[in-house]
Model the fold of this input.
Amino acid sequence: MHVPEPIVNIADLVLYYGRVMALKRITMDVSKKKITAFIGPSGCGKSTLIRCLNRMNDLIEGVKIEGCIRIDGRDIYEPSVDVTELRKRVGMVFQKPNPFPKTIYENVVYGMRILGINKRSILDEICEKALKKAALWNEVKDRLHGNALDLSGGQQQRICIARAIAMEPEIVLLDEPCSALDPIATAKIEDMLVELKQDYTVIIVTHNMQQAARISDHTAFFMQGELIEFNVTTELFTNPREKQTEDYITGRFG
Done:
């Protein structure tokens, strides 16, 4: 599928865990400032692919990658790429909320402190801006110096999103960010993600097909490490081209 304004270009991507081929010649582009959802049954390669985009798989022993991923035209697996800089540009939020055992404020500005930014007025501004974008400011502005671990699960996940966007990334990756949350917390995060695409490219792995249908512009369906179908979300859900896609979204398997 041709996508408008691609920011990510994936070409012939193959990934092995040891001798097991987990991704099989994935080729697709991701549009700038859109929400792209990755769906498919467990073990189909969704999370493996999303972790390739900020080189998190580098941390796993025995992983071998072939093919090419370009972000803004540059191959992110080139030896000259600064992985720390890449992860600043490509933020990541995981399935289980993982705030640090620190204050709400220190969680949000953590990355900036690592970069050596310690001026209070700058950190205050970054913290407020990130919490507003994460739709959390009004809920926590009076307890910024309380422990982030005292927040609800949904609030903790939005703290993690605020921590990621405080770094002003171009791309935000989310690996099943709502799987541990109740429907109300999930709805808040979905609304926030739709707002975030005004400023960021959002890529979300989700088991929840209704979530993909509600919030994404484009959806990619994976099976056993292969990209089966990639299309505009409304088209993929209402008029799938492939029988495997139709069987999955109608609940015949998966």
User: Anything to note?
Assistant: The chain has one domain: 6-249. The first strand starts at residue 6 and ends at 17.
